[in-house]
Design goal:
This is Gliding motility-associated ABC transporter substrate-binding protein GldG. By secondary structure, the protein is of the alpha+beta class. The protein has helices spanning about 1-35, 55-60, 80-100, 110-115, 115-130, 175-185, 185-200, 220-230, 260-275, 305-310, 500-510, 530-535, 535-565, and strands at about 65-70, 105, 135-140, 145-150, 155-160, 160-165, 205-210, 235, 250-255, 275-280, 285-290, 295-300, 315, 320, 325-335, 340-355, 370, 375-380, 385-390, 395-400, 405, 425-435, 460-465, 490, 495. The strands form 7 sheets. Strands 7, 8, 9, 10, 15, 16, 17, 19, 22 and 23 form a 10-stranded mixed sheet that branches. Strands 2-1-5-6 form a 4-stranded mixed sheet, covered by helices on one side. The protein has a 3-stranded antiparallel sheet with strand order 11-12-21, with no helix packed on it. The two termini are about 25 Å apart.
Length: about 575
């Protein structure tokens, strides 16, 4: 019996040892496989860790491997940028897990990889030429303030194709933390747009530009054309010589100055009725310079006002001035010795426009730089179109009727609230739905019609109207005569969101709109109440100290009681 008892003890010991060995082996296996396994549940309210269906579709359509170089990195990143970096790396892990093709991700610490100043300057020039300018931040190191350049961008490469993505995007009129939060919200959309750019197998839509109605120099459209050519095929259109607009997916007119004839309006109308898309950048007024005195503002008849009126939108022949949010221009404010003293003075005729936060086109965009804008109104019409305001001014505006003069001496004067009570003015509208022809019950153009007249169809179209023809135009460097980036203000040395707004508008109209739903993600900031933290600091410190000690004491007491009961029995 003693032998059997000892044998059973040995077997139980071996069984326990085997169980421990199995558990240790499983633990080691999980540790080894953990980098390859990505199992998690998104319990966040905003579902910020879940890729949208459109993003998964983009990844599934990849036809070859891609590489992504991340230039946002380094151990000395400030807290906000570390949060942006963490969100980006987590997103890239999700993207790599969902892609059927290989995705190589390389994170580059610029200061570590390029320790020499000469090499680092060459990289800065290279990234800046791609559209990823460095961001200068100030860090506290050893009690001293140290300036550091951060590169919030990625470069996506596939074969001979390349796309550069600037990650730090947001409304600069908000706090830096809000800008970083808005940038995190837009990470998925920006990344997907970059991946779409390097794909070879995607269908390219066709955009027609009405060049015969606009006298804008080509050099002022270079940046816009260069950006659009990455995703679309562009065609010049002579509307007077084209019987129809068939074959185009969208039409665009930029700052027209030649009146549209009735025949031209009819062609545009039939294009929209048949499900076409359009973007019109229109000036409601004409600006002429009166030498050394100021500007003369007069109404401008483009021939499109009647067409838009039938669709339920009125382009007003006025000038909207904004005293709260506006650009600045250099003006002579006196003499400094024998030289004119030039200073930047606020110019209310150049309002900074805010985007609609509820639209995927304008959500989280920086301010858009406007020049001599007019207002848009909605009116009752027989159209059942959905109308969405995209761009607005601040509430402190003055709506100046035309004809009028705008003297330079008005710039920089102290803001008088009594003169700026026009309220927030809408500068851009999106119309979408089934367009009904504006020529219903009207005499049709006398020229031979290429196709039968259609009063309405079952196809939904869309039209974006912007009451400022300057928004899609880039400036020109006065010294080199070279084109500047779209939205860049030479005086403030800041690039506004004009380019992002225009590109988002085209993407919304022409691409699968599901792709833009990634811009709808909300990542809320949940900051601590600083006053409550200060008042209750000692209480919560005591709680954090007492609970672990009490928990450890209870566990120890239970162990002692268990051992006492077991060995005293």
């Amino acid at each position: 019996m003693l032998f059997l008892f000892e044998t059973n003890k040995i077997q139980m010991k071996l069984t326990k040892n085997g169980l421990w060995a199995i558990l240790i082996g499983v633990g080691i296996l999980l540790i080894v496989l953990s980098p390859q396994l990505r199992l998690r549940w998104d319990l966040s309210e905003e579902k910020k860790f879940t890729l949208s269906e459109s993003s998964v579709a983009v990844l599934q359509s990849l036809d070859g491997p891609i590489s992504i170089k991340v230039y946002l990195g380094g151990r000395n990143l400030p807290g906000g940028f570390r949060r942006l970096e963490k969100a980006l790396l987590e997103l890239l892990d999700d993207v790599r897990a969902q892609s059927p093709q290989r995705i190589d991700i390389e994170q580059i610490d610029v200061y570590k990889t390029y320790p020499k100043e000469k090499d680092r300057q060459a990289l800065i020039f290279y990234l800046d030429s791609l559209g990823i300018p460095p961001t200068n931040v100030v860090n506290q190191e050893d009690g001293q303030q140290v300036q550091q350049l951060i590169f919030p961008g990625i470069v996506i490469e596939k074969s001979d194709r390349q796309a550069a993505i600037l990650l730090l995007k947001g409304n600069k009129l908000t706090s830096p933390q809000e800008v970083l939060n808005q940038s995190i919200e837009g990470l998925e959309y920006e990344l997907m747009q970059g991946i779409r750019q390097v794909q070879d197998n995607r269908e390219r839509k066709k955009i027609g530009f009405f060049l015969d109605h606009s006298q804008v120099p080509a050099i002022k459209q270079l940046d816009l054309i260069a950006q659009l050519k990455k995703s679309y095929d562009l065609y010049p259109v002579d509307l007077s010589q084209s019987l129809t607009l068939d074959g185009l997916d969208a039409i665009c007119v930029i700052q027209p100055s030649i009146k549209f004839s009735t025949e031209d309006q009819y062609k545009i109308d039939q294009f929209l009725v048949q499900g076409g898309k359009g973007i019109f950048f229109l000036d409601g007024v004409r600006i002429d310079t009166l030498e050394k005195q100021g500007l003369i503002v007069t109404p401008q008849d483009l021939g499109l006002q009647n067409l838009l009126f039938q669709y339920g939108v009125r382009l007003n022949a006025n000038l909207v001035k904004d005293a709260q949010l506006c650009g600045a221009i250099p003006l002579a404010v006196g003499n400094f010795g024998n030289q004119a003293n030039l200073e930047l003075m606020p110019w209310p005729a150049f309002p900074l426009l805010n985007g609609n936060p509820n639209s995927v086109i304008t959500k989280n965009l920086d301010a858009i730089y406007g020049r001599f804008v007019s207002s848009l109104d909605t009116i009752q019409s027989g159209q059942s179109l959905k109308r969405t305001a995209l761009l607005k001014t601040s509430p402190y505006t003055q709506v100046q009727k035309t004809p009028a003069t705008l003297p330079f001496s008005a710039s920089g004067k102290e803001f008088d609230p009594a003169k700026y009570q026009g309220g927030s003015q809408v500068i851009s509208y999106l119309l979408e739905g089934k367009f009904q022809s504006a020529f219903t019950n009207r005499i049709l153009p006398t020229e031979k019609l290429a196709k039968p007249f259609q009063a309405k169809t079952d196809q939904a179209g869309a039209l974006i109207i912007v009451a400022d023809g300057d928004i899609p135009l880039n400036g020109i460097d006065p010294s080199t005569k070279a084109p500047l980036p779209l939205g860049f203000d030479t005086f403030a040395k800041h690039t506004f969101a004009n380019k992002d707004f225009v590109l988002n508008a085209f993407h919304y109209l022409l691409d699968d709109q599901q792709a833009l739903l990634a811009r709808n993600k909300n990542v809320r900031l949940r900051p601590l109440d600083k006053v409550k933290v200060k008042e209750e600091k000692s209480f919560w410190q005591g709680i954090n100290l007492a609970i672990p000690i009490a928990f450890a004491g209870i566990i120890s007491l239970l162990v002692i009681l268990y051992r006492k009961k077991k060995y005293n029995a």
